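Complex record, two chains
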Amino acid sequence: MLNMVASLFFAIGQQTPDGFVPVTGAPAGEQIPAAPLVIGSYAFFLLIMVFYIWTIWRRIGKVEADMRSLERRQSGSK
Amino acid sequence: MMKKLFVPLALVTAAMFAYAPIAINRVPLESTMLLVQKIFYFHFATWMALTTVIAVCGAASLIYLFQGSKIADAYAVASAELVVVFGVFGLFSGSLWGRKAWGVWWQWDARVTMATMLVMVFLGYLMVRKYGGPGSEKLAAAMGIFGAATAPFVYKSVDWWRTIHPQTSVVRTLGEKFPAAWDLVLFCSTAFVLLAVLLLIARVRLEGMRNELDRMYLAAEDE
């Protein structure tokens, strides 16, 4: 009888802990994976740099085209 | 001089960026954050490049405001644009790191908030330049000076207001505690600063060409 009461007491104790209880090392399923974050960071850097260099190249091309067009207009009017 | 330096500098920088992921993969994991700490090597290096371009923007804005030098203005606008580019990456990589280290994508931490405000000041600089109309260069130069003056406060914010972001001592003590990481931080920072210099040269060239085009239009109107 005493054994039954004791085992019931411990079972209740295990099922409903009083407040938050710390654990050492979260289960694998509960952890945020780091690899996608690291790869994402480096991939984003590559993307942003390629995009920015493309915008500089495009803007230089546009100014060069404007210069050529102006030179053509000037030589045509002379 | 700049033209002669550009290609060798670009080759060295490309080689450094090609080697960086290999070196980052090889460096040992940090004891508490493990794999996600590897974001640090590009994250910190980005802020080094950003500090360089902020210093250029502040100095060039000062020269333009008091001496009216066109070339200084070209450097100021080019570097302000780079502050935004590197700033966006710095904030993004910090957010990814924070997701794992702090459990959240964003935190209104003193350093993170101040860094965001700093990037926004330079975004404001670019907007003033684009939509401000005649005379906006001088107003933007003042913004560039004050934006640059904010940078030391952003750096010291983690020491003055203790929140969640690591303190500046983390980097200062890295050499003795984790020499392999320190060497890699120096390597990546050098690569990023070189990249910033290259982008600055290309962007200043664009600004020079725009000035030349304006001069050509004015000359054509006079004829």
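Note: Chain B touches chain A at residues 21, 34-36, 38-39, 42-43, 46, 85, 88-89, 92-93, 96-97, 99-100, 103, 195, 199, 202-203, 205-206, 209-210, 212-213, 216-217, 220, 223 (CB under 8 Å).
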